Amino acid sequence: MAQVEEKLIAANAALDLIENGMTVGLGSGTTAAMFLRLLGERVRSGLKIKGVPTSESTAQLARELGILLVSLDDQPHPDIDIDGADEATESMCLIKGGGGALLREKIVAFASRRFVAIIDSSKLVKKLGKFPLPVEIVPFARSLVADAVVDLGGKPVLRQANDGTAFLTDQGNWILDCSFGAIEDPSSLASKLADIPGIVEHGLFIGLADQIIVGRNGSAVRLGN
Ligand code: 5RP
Question: Is there an atom of ligand 1 within 6 Å of 84 CB?
């Protein structure tokens, strides 16, 4: 089945989790945008929710769809957060940040009472790491962080925008896409990365997802609670 149809199936299944009055973390990326469009239709039919966007592009789309936005300061604990992922395992570990929004995505996932990842079946893997791990860095520390990533066995590549300049995150930071190969121990890598000064955040989401909804063969398969 086409990836796009599986994403839509997962997005549709997540819509069933949204109830009137909820504050909803709004993820970033194409799967999250599908969810957002479906949510926008419900809002136009009378559903009352507030959204906390995880990126400027999500905020813009949500506004176009008529979804009321609030900040994390206004609503520090959204009832639920719905977001995509680049890779996921059955042990509920994720790689995120392919769209460059990992910092706000992790903040909102952490803050939310429930975090649900929505993916197509190609994203479900036995081991994380085929997808290069996005690491958001302070530009000043680029060389230091790159060397430290190499010491950890990774190959860092500075992400570029379409015009060939460094890709800028919503916070004005840069991203190193770091190929580690199969990541045998995501928790250990996460804590080693967290110890490197100049890394603002990395795309390993461990112990954050309550549920992963996988679009697969025409139906939605749920992992977790
Ligand atoms: C953005 C992300 C996205 O959730 C991730 O890249 C998946 O994107 P898509 O749904 O387009 O495949 O982490 O920072």
Answer: yes
Could you give all domains of the chain from N- to C-terminal order, each with its CATH number? 2-125+206-219 (3.40.50.1360), 133-202 (3.30.70.260)
For residue 105, what are its two tokens? 């995505």
Atom 1 (ligand 1) nearest CA: 99
| pLDDT tops 90 at residue 15 | yes
Could you give the C-alpha distances from 160 to 117, 157, 163, 177, 197, in angstroms and in order? 26, 9, 8, 10, 22
Cα 193 to the chain's mean position, in Å?
Answer: 18
The CB of 132 under 6 Å from ligand 1? The reply is: no
25-59 pLDDT per residue, tens: 999 999 999 999 999 999 999 999 999 999 999 99
pTM: 0.97
